[in-house]
TrEMBL record, chains A, B:
Substrates-to-products reaction catalysed: 7-phospho-2-dehydro-3-deoxy-D-arabino-heptonate = 3-dehydroquinate + phosphate
Gene Ontology terms describing biological process: amino acid biosynthetic process; aromatic amino acid family biosynthetic process; chorismate biosynthetic process
Protein function: Catalyzes the conversion of 3-deoxy-D-arabino-heptulosonate 7-phosphate (DAHP) to dehydroquinate (DHQ).
Species, as recorded: Alsobacter metallidurans
Domain 3-dehydroquinate synthase C-terminal residues, every copy: 187-336
GO cellular component entries: cytoplasm
Protein name, as recorded: 3-dehydroquinate synthase
One Pfam entry name: DHQS_C
Length: 374, 374
């Protein structure tokens, strides 16, 4: 593997501005990097049992070496921790570790840990500082950037939470070396999404360099940097998701419905896989509506299949839902505005746009066609 | 009772600016007032069983008359609802009532309901709109103004929460007519506090007009208006409590310790009573330190006793703690900064200031003297 230099993406959010640092070996250097942005602050590290085995020792050593007082909270792995009970566990542990307002909650893990720890940071003592150390590709390019934190409710995912920006994000690309291939691949769907939203050149680059991204090394850093910069730019334009930021949901209205209907069973479908199918659906739906060419829809599907991602509803193991069930699930999505269905559609690769008030009948017709073909 | 006109205190917090409207019969006019600031928004009313009996019917009627879709969530009365379980109950009920981001959580009740409903508003869908309709004097002059929301943790009160400003506060002074005398009196301690912090003229006015404030009518509106304006000014100067806003804690370092040591048993001591003893202690401690005259300390105590409030630690029914226990409880207070004790002390009536790093030995000596006298 070739040598890799750190790169930094700055997120210029005024008095909530912060840096995303991307590189190799950052977990082992985290203590010094955190001390530089928050001298004197103590750290409550929140992680899960799996990530703890792989990385907690190195992080604690690095915090100790920097003279940072620290305590660790180890949650059960999996989505179930993103619950009211999980929030209570983390908040009480952070408070019990005598952390004050100026101290830091550090999320060491994937998206679940980042969302849960970030929400705890937002609410303990009405707001502590927050550092993200994402250890999955999905978390590095998506959930650790942008300040969205939260837990799930009985009524749906991420329905309870806060916007709470980190003061620093450390994306250690070395942490991805130990990921299961399937998990890395799922995260790649979100990487490809940034190209599809508004950066056709990046999508073209991915078509050329995806092997390098999977292998690690400078191509991986470039892909993560480009993804973080794209998301950061959109977050800066629209921090509270009142407008443009919705473009980040390309493929997600479909994806959330698929996840809901497979009951968030990661054995069948993980989020990134749902996004891959959702991206392909968004382009085929756009083509069906005459918005983009069938060629573009085919190109999107082709690249996702090349890296091994699913692109068809029928690719989801054990799928048995019909168009009506998918539509129902879409109507329960929190991104529904006053009853109208909102989709992110596209006029081509890198040419996505927000389509409000999409007619449910056209969605149903599209889904019927999708489910009939093999 | 003489006729009363509405008065409005504006809280100029930039894009989070809002009005506090104070007057009689506001609950019955709430629908039209809410529709004026948030046209088209639905309302989830959060209240407790006691307040529901007295006021929920009138509020629901008023919302219906204004054509506002509304649902009500009725919690168990009492501090126990300010818990993780209470938060889950309210959040899930609000989500279940199909409230979206632009819709409103309405808190109808005292401080507990305001804190709980406000926190739910802060976190459901990462932030809904929020309207306060405080029905206790304490809530009208203190907790409904300033955006502090939250719940209690096993480690202490209000340790988990958010800053979330309302879009409107409706302080219906008529709602106070049905309060128990003891509860009204407890709220009065916070009213007196505003005079003691930085408004000697207001304290003098209270010494003259306290009967009018207790009776209702224009004097009550004036006292509430002056209190809200004082708190609002301090919140505007320091929204996130990083500086001056701490003056609002005059009497509270003592009060929180008394509440903790009586295990928040409202039968023995309610918050406002603890504040009354705390205010008297803050002035006597200031006198003991040679900061203010014994005459001023006596004047503070005299007025609080005149309206029937306790002013001595020994006034607390069944008190049995010593100076060491009180100091311990103070050190557990969340307002402790990196181990140093912070007090709000005074150089006279209306001349309070933040005293950081107060020597624990001087506090102990003062408490020993307090507990020895009868």
């Amino acid at each position: 593997m070739s040598e890799v230099e750190d790169v930094v993406v700055h997120v210029p959010l005024g008095d909530r501005a912060y840096d995303i640092q991307i590189g190799r070996g950052l977990i082992g250097r985290a203590g010094a990097l955190i001390a530089a942005v928050a001298p004197g602050a103590a750290c409550a590290v929140v992680t899960d049992a799996n990530v703890a085995k792989a990385h907690l020792g190195a992080l604690e050593q690095s915090l100790a070496a920097a003279g940072i007082r620290h305590e660790s909270v180890v949650c059960a792995p999996g989505e179930a921790s993103k619950s009211y009970a999980g929030l209570q566990e983390v908040c009480d542990a952070v408070i019990g570790a005598r952390m004050e307002r100026g101290d830091i909650v550090v999320a060491l893990g994937g998206g679940v840990i980042g969302d849960l720890a970030g929400f705890a940071a937002a609410v303990v003592r009405r707001g502590m500082r927050f550092v993200q150390i994402p250890t999955s590709l999905l978390a590095q390019v998506d959930s650790s950037v942008g300040g969205k934190t939260g837990i799930n409710s009985a009524h749906g995912k991420n329905l309870v939470g806060a916007f709470h920006q980190p003061i620093l994000v450390l994306a250690d690309v070395g942490a991805l070396d130990t990921l299961a291939e399937r998990e890395f691949r799922a995260g790649y769907a979100e990487v490809a999404k940034y190209g599809l939203i508004d950066d056709a050149a990046f999508f073209g680059w991915l078509e050329e360099h995806h092997r390098g991204v999977f292998a690690g090394g400078p191509d991986r850093v470039h892909a993560i940097r480009t993804s973080c910069a794209a998301k950061a730019a959109m977050v800066v334009r629209d921090e509270k998701e009142e407008g443009d930021r919705a473009l980040l949901n390309l493929g997600h209205t479909f994806a959330h419905a698929f996840e809901r209907l497979t009951r968030y069973d990661g054995a069948r479908l993980v989020h990134g896989e749902a996004v891959a199918v959702g991206l392909a659906c968004a382009f085929r739906f756009s083509a069906a509506l005459g918005l983009c060419s069938g060629q573009d829809a085919g190109r999107v599907e082709g690249h996702l299949r090349t890296v091994g991602l699913p692109t068809r509803i029928r690719d989801i193991p054990g799928w048995d839902g019909g168009a009506a069930a998918i539509l129902d699930a879409m109507f329960q999505d929190k991104k529904v505005q006053r009853g109208a269905l909102t989709f992110i559609l596209a006029r081509g690769v890198g040419q996505s746009f927000i389509a409000r008030g999409v007619d449910a009948d056209r969605v149903r017709a599209f889904l019927d066609a999708e489910l009939d073909r093999t």
